[in-house]
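Handoff note, outgoing to incoming analyst
You'll be picking up this chain. Sequence as last confirmed:
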Amino acid sequence: MTETIFSKDILKDKVAFITGGGTGITGGVARAFAEHGANLAITSRKEENLSAMKKAVEAFGGECFTVSADVRDYAAVENAIAKTVEHYGKIDIVVNGAAGNFLCSADQLSANGFGTVVDIDTKGTFNVCRAAFEELKKSKGQILNISATLHYLATPMQIHVSAAKAGVDAITRNLSVEWGRYGIRVNGIAPGPIEDTEGMKRLLPEQFKEMIVKKIPLRRFGRIADIENAALFLTSDAASYVNGVTLVVDGGQWLLGTSLA
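Most recent structure output, in case you need it:
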C-alpha cells in the first residue's frame, strides 16, 4: 500500500475499467484506485501484462478482474466491457490509458507507424468510450483519458503521438458536452515527463535530462504518484462539477517548453 492524502474508501464500491492498466502510469492509477476501494477490471493486448497487477492488488485484499483486448478492435472492446459487467454488474469509471510511442523524425516516419499510434491512442480511446456508453449512462459514471503535453507547442520526433493525443483531448471535450446530459463526466490528465516510467527511460536520453529539468518551474520530474493523485481527485466526488477538463500535471513545464530542436 502506498501513502496517500485521500481517504482509503474514496472510491469504495466503484468499478473501474482501465485500459493499459497492467503497467506504467495507468498501472499506477489502477493500483491506487484499488487501494482506495475500487474494484478493478484491467485490459491489455498481452495477458502477461495483467497478471502481475492482479497478484499485487489481490495481495492487499483488492479485487482485480483481467481481460485481454486490443483497443483498436471494437468487437474485442465490446467483449471486454460485457465480461466486466457480467463479473461486477456495472461500470462506474473508465480510464483510457492504452498507448503507443517511439521516437521518429517526421521524414523517417512511415504511414503505418503514424497510423498505428493514432489507432491505439485516438481510435482506441473512442472505441472504449463508445462501447462503455450504455453502462456509464446507467451508473452516471465517468471517463478519464490519459493524454500528454507534447502537442501544446511542438515536440520533435513525436509528431505521431502529438497528433494522437490532440485527438484524445478533442474526444474529452466533445464527449463532456454531448454526454454531460446523462450525468457522465469526461475529463483527462496530461502528464509531463514522469521519471519512474519505462517510457521516460526509452524516450529521454540521459544527456538531456539535466537540461530538461532546468526548464521545469518546479525543478523536478514528475512521479507516477503525482498522476495517481490527480486521477483520484478527478474521479472522486471532490470533482463532481469538473467536466471537460484535461488537467496538466507537469510542474509547469509546457509553459516554458523543452524543445530539443
